[in-house]
Amino acid sequence: MNSPVLRLTDLRRIYATKAGPLEVLKGVNLTIMPGEIVALIGPSGSGKSSLLHAAGLLEIFQGGRVELAGIDATALPDAARTALRRTALGFVYQFHHLLPEFTARDNVALPQWIAGVSQNEAKARAQALLELMGLKDRAEHQPGELSGGEQQRVAIARALANQPALLIADEPTGNLDPTTSAFVFETFRKATREEGTSALVATHNVDLARQMDRVFRLDNGRLVEG
């Protein structure tokens, strides 16, 4: 039986405010299996980003457990958390954050170079991912020469570059018009399926959420399926 890619157990996130402690996540439980694409919905301020940051080992949480790719990351020291992020996670944000002076292919190759992959091997992998994203003829273009939808597809390819077990995506189509958003998401879904990567996707777009394997809603700090 396959082990979960991500397991959150009784996850709690509390922020200190002038009015006192604010508990944003009140004992969240979530399990994502290999290959699953899971949607996370909820209004602004409901804690979606806090959940993603905790699951992605980007923020300290105040209670509960995070297990990623079979490793209990709850009490890992900073260096070990960083190493686990690099090997097990890919991140996609609303804004692509591509390096403007690099070509599309080099933007996708960069995480591989950082991981120690040879230049030729990284570029070959980058080219293959760009082809998977429908960008075969745009590999030598810089971000400023690409449309918004093309830039976001490059960002998705970059997130997949090191073959992560889990993609964490925070409003990955939120900066795009509805037609482009639908196309980019379909490409995202196709690519993750072909790569065998799981994904946790926060979105305001209920229509996109319904196309994923499961949908969870944050409601008053608790996670509700459906």
UniProtKB/TrEMBL annotation:
It comes from the Bacteria. Keywords: ATP-binding, Lipoprotein, Nucleotide-binding, Transport. One of its GO terms (molecular function) is ATP binding. Pfam families: ABC_tran (PF00005). Residues 6-226 form the ABC transporter domain. Belongs to the ABC transporter superfamily. The keyword Ubl conjugation does not apply. Signal peptide: none annotated. InterPro entries: AAA+_ATPase (IPR003593), ABC_transporter-like_ATP-bd (IPR003439), ABC_transporter-like_CS (IPR017871), ABC_transpr_LolD-like (IPR015854), MacB-like_ATP-bd (IPR017911), P-loop_NTPase (IPR027417). This is Lipoprotein-releasing system ATP-binding protein LolD 2. It comes from Candidatus Phycosocius spiralis.
